[in-house]
Amino acid sequence: MKLFFSGRDYIHKVLVVAAEVGVLDQITFVTENPLDDDAEIWAHNPLGRHPIIELDDGTVLNHGLLCCEYLASLGPANQLFPDNESRWRALSNMILGDGLFDATSALVTQSLRPESARNHPDMLRHRQRIQHLLPAMEREATQFRADRFDIGQVCFAGGVDYFDRRKPLRRVMLAPEDAEFEWRASCPGLSAWFDKIIERPSLKLRPSDLGIASQGMPKTKGSK
Predict the structure, then answer these.
(1) Does residue 94 or residue 85 have the better pLDDT?
(2) pLDDT (tens digit, 9 = 90+) per residue, 125-140?
(3) Closest to 103 measured CA to CA, from 17, 190, 224
């Protein structure tokens, strides 16, 4: 199968799942800039977004979370997408973590534009999402079990890592308090969980560790 991607952040959860399942050696990685008019991605995905997986029979999995579920299904026991009573909580947390990633990506992308070209109502909406997501993720993180690692935790770790590194609220400064915003102070449970889980080998994996060069972060629109 072929995995099309650009920046390392957009592929991270897919790499984590592939590493956890042990199928990295079954993947051919194709890197490109999805903003190029002649990018190959358009021949495979009408959304023009990364990452996607093209299977050997031509089937295209055109969303990062869909790629994750497919890769998880290749393992002997699909513990990342559980089929018991914990399934729905794992999937709900998957959406929360991916939502933090999306809101961060949207604000970072806006910060790269001139002030006059920024969409401030949209930025305020993403800021509001972050303000509601963090306490919700704090509540969930305090209930994570050390002996269980599922897609919810994969996406929590990816979302928090991206948010922590990019510091989107400080970048766009939509309110005076954003200059000193520090998520760890208000989310001690999430912070403690993240500092432990981020040491997991699959979560530390980067494309460069596989000898793959990424295209970097798109500058005007994101991918999923």
Answers:
(1) 94
(2) 999 999 999 999 999 9
(3) 224
Strands (E), the chain: 2-5, 28-31, 52-54, 60-61
> Which tokens go with 140?
């969930």
d(Cα 116, Cα 36) in Å, to the nearest integer?
25
Structure tokens at 172: 């766009």
Of 205, 194, 201, nearest in space to 97 by CA: 194
Q: Whole-angstrom Cα distance, residue 17 to residue 181? A: 31
Q: How far apart are CA 81 and CA 87, in angstroms?
A: 6
Tell me how far apart the alpha carbons of residues 220 and 224 are, in angstroms, rounded to a whole number.
14
Instruction: State which amino acid sits at residue 170.
Output: R
Query: Whole-model pTM?
Result: 0.90
**Can you read off the two tokens belonging to residue 138?**
């704090």
* Bridge partner residues of 28 (DSSP): 2
CA atoms of 167 and 180, how far apart (whole Å): 10
> In angstroms, how far is CA 63 from the centroid of its own chain?
11
**Which residues lie below 8 Å from residue 87, measured CB to CB, with a gap of 6+?**
81
Instruction: Compute the average pLDDT of residues 161-175.
Output: 96
Please provide the average confidence, as pLDDT, over all residues in the chain.
Answer: 90
pLDDT in tens, 177-211: 999 999 999 999 999 999 999 999 999 998 888 88
The structure tokens listed for 99 are 């939502």
